[in-house]
Specification:
Glyco_trans_1; EC 2.4.-.-; 6-stranded parallel sheet; Glycosyltransferase; globular; 368 residues
């Protein structure tokens, strides 16, 4: 198999184990399938202008030195996020003829490319010069084709995949006992970054409505509280029902899977979402999912695979949560099971390796 360099501006470390965990998971999946992969990534989520300049400059230099040293061994590069990450792959192609694949995750188009015309132009160039553009959601695929002018045959719709060996059904009541969750409790679970764009304040308002009709309901939120400004807002809002709103910091994936199993309903109230992998993981353990009708969530939960609600609308969210809570013990969701199967690691690995092979065969070696 060919040698691959993966570039990413998000990657886990011991200090930040969940930062870009989806990229690491895919890298580990590739290694299990005997793909020779090297990773050059940023593993520090610190914000601030000075810190950002330092870490991005260091990353850029490390990446380019790596490419120059390994240019004759590399079959292709794979960048996660169009800009700035994809620019590294674009330079490797321009300088050394190394083809590349770029995965678009959402924020790189919805936020980064919208910052100014220069970044939008660079993003367009990065996407158009790629051998293949992978989008994790249907809406992103449409954006890549129609907003950035990439030929449809070069765009592949593919999620990051779900590890069904970790996110698997378990005996619910046994897991709840291990987590000290009372039998009669109606558990609602959110997992993700604690930021406003995830719709958390909408969720707090919706939960206030739910609690009045379901007194046994408890809301659990698992996610990083590093955004101090937002956490102040969250704490003010959650004071309405402090004993029923429980926040926890990020946990290892196996523990997350247990919390998903224990929950009666999983909720993802995002204002925008490229795909919504965490929702797929909840579906994989068999827990009903309520999410906003945005981005990749719209197609992920269509056909009854989950409950879709209006974004920015606490009343709609509350209605969806109540519906899911009251039907949580119904028969297995075949649409959800199909969605999980089509996004399993085995399926994703097979498709991704096929894309790598196709890109490597078209490699331009004229620089040698």
């Amino acid at each position: 198999m060919c040698k691959i360099a993966v570039f990413s501006n998000m990657y886990p470390s011991k200090e930040h184990p969940t930062y870009g965990i989806f990229v690491k998971n895919q890298v580990e999946l590739l290694k299990k399938h005997d793909v020779d992969v090297d990773v050059i990534a940023i593993d520090d989520p610190k914000k601030g202008k000075v810190a950002a300049i330092k870490k991005y400059l260091s990353w850029f230099l490390r990446s380019m030195l790596y490419v120059m040293k390994n240019k004759k061994k590399l079959s292709l590069t794979h960048s996660h996020y169009a800009f700035p990450t994809g620019y590294l792959s674009l330079l490797a192609k321009k300088w050394f003829g190394i083809p590349y694949i770029v995965t678009v995750h959402g924020g790189d188009l919805d936020k980064m490319a919208a910052k100014n015309a220069r970044i939008a132009k660079m993003t367009k160039n990065i996407l158009q010069q790629a051998h293949t553009v992978i989008t994790v959601g249907e809406k992103l695929r449409e954006d890549v084709i129609h907003r950035f002018g990439v030929a449809p045959e070069k765009v592949e719709l593919m999620s990051m995949g779900v590890d069904t060996s970790v996110f698997a059904p378990m005996p619910k009541q046994a897991v709840r006992r291990s987590l000290s969750i009372p039998v009669k409790e109606k558990s609602i679970l959110y997992i993700g970054n604690m930021i406003e764009a995830k719709g958390i304040l909408d969720l707090i308002e919706a939960f206030d409505i739910v609690s009045k009709e379901e007194p046994e309901a408890v809301l659990y939120l698992i996610g990083s509280s590093k955004d101090a400004g937002f956490m102040e807002k969250f704490n003010r809002h959650s004071l309405r029902r402090p004993d029923k709103t429980i926040h926890m910091e990020p946990k290892p994936q196996q523990e997350l899977a247990e919390w998903m199993v224990a929950a009666d309903v999983f909720v993802l109230p995002s204002h925008h979402e490229g795909f919504g992998l965490v929702a797929l993981e909840a579906m994989s353990v068999g827990t009903p999912v309520v999410a906003t009708n945005v981005g990749g969530l719209s197609s992920l939960l269509r056909d009854g695979a989950g409950v879709l609600v209006e974004p920015h609308n606490p009343s709609s969210l509350a209605e969806g949560l109540l519906t899911a809570l009251r039907t949580a013990d119904s028969s297995p969701n075949e649409a959800a099971e199909h969605r999980v199967k089509s996004n399993s690691y085995d399926v994703i690995a097979e498709r991704l390796i096929a894309l790598y092979d196709a890109a490597a065969k078209g490699q331009d070696k004229s620089y040698e």
